[in-house]
Amino acid sequence: LQGYASEMDNPNLVHLIPSALQNKKDILFGNLPEIYDFHNRIFLKEIENCIENPELLARCFLKRKEDLQIYEKYCQNKPRSEALWRQCGDSIFFQECQRKLDHKLSLDAYLLKPVQRITKYQLLLKEMLKCSKNSEGTAELEEALATMLDIIKSVNDSMHQIAITGYEGDVSELGKLLMQGSFNVWTDHKKGHNKVKDLARFKPMQRHLFLYTKMLLFCKKREENTDGHEKTASYSFKNSLKMSTVGITENVKGDNKKFEIWYNGREEVYIIQASSVELKNTWISEIRKVLT
């Protein structure tokens, strides 16, 4: 923030800033100032207070659960930030800042830090749990670990969600995103002439499902190469089912990884095959919660 972001306002360097970067500081850095401020003013002090009493550490995480959501915003902006960096990362402005700081690594390595940090907390808490079997604060550590895993899951889910294309409505109105993942899907529609008797012979569709409290979205995953860089996935919207009108059949004969979601009194039936029985059960329990 000091060596790069504030240098963008340095009158001596202003002429070196590439035009693609004009007024795009917020895109490149996302809400990094907010993350820095939270750690600097609040979280660091609270953690330092636990040096003598490590059993109190878990409480810091539980108390700051809401604040740590700021990482989700950062990660959501990351693809835009990376695209901008690819466009102008090799400019003289950044080289000059890096030279002044005497850094071996360029700015993009530092912009990755918050993403790495949010995934590291759970590892640290796991390590602490190993050292604190049945001692004071163990239960709170377990709760703190679950909290951090929850935050990582919601960051991960929201990263997939921002890649949905072609959905007419507003995904933010569909309620909380509970689960997302890829499945084999077969459909059986009673309407029309294509009443399918034997579904097993037909090739399944690959669909990426997004389960919200109000809606289940079926999307098709597309991987696009972004100008010679890593593949970015996008999910093109295919269809949706209102959760208030669906039913579920938990077991499908002949395959314990399959379950059914049906619509409108079985007028439309979707047979869904998970990659494992555990995954199927997790989805079923989430869907059941929504339905009840």
TrEMBL record:
One of its GO terms (biological process) is intracellular signal transduction. PROSITE patterns: DH_1, DH_2, PH_DOMAIN. PANTHER family: GUANINE NUCLEOTIDE EXCHANGE FACTOR MCF2L2-RELATED (PTHR22826:SF201), RHO GUANINE EXCHANGE FACTOR-RELATED (PTHR22826). Residues 1-158 form the DH domain. GO terms for cellular component: cytoplasm. Keywords: Guanine-nucleotide releasing factor, Phosphoprotein. InterPro entries: DBL_dom_sf, DH_dom, GDS_CDC24_CS, PH-like_dom_sf, PH_domain, RhoGEF_Guanine_NuclExch_SF, SOS1_NGEF_PH. The lineage of its organism: Eukaryota, Metazoa, Chordata, Craniata, Vertebrata. Residues 170-292 form the PH domain. This is MCF2L factor. SUPFAM superfamilies: DBL homology domain (DH-domain) (SSF48065), PH domain-like (SSF50729). It comes from Orthonyx spaldingii. GO terms for molecular function: guanyl-nucleotide exchange factor activity.
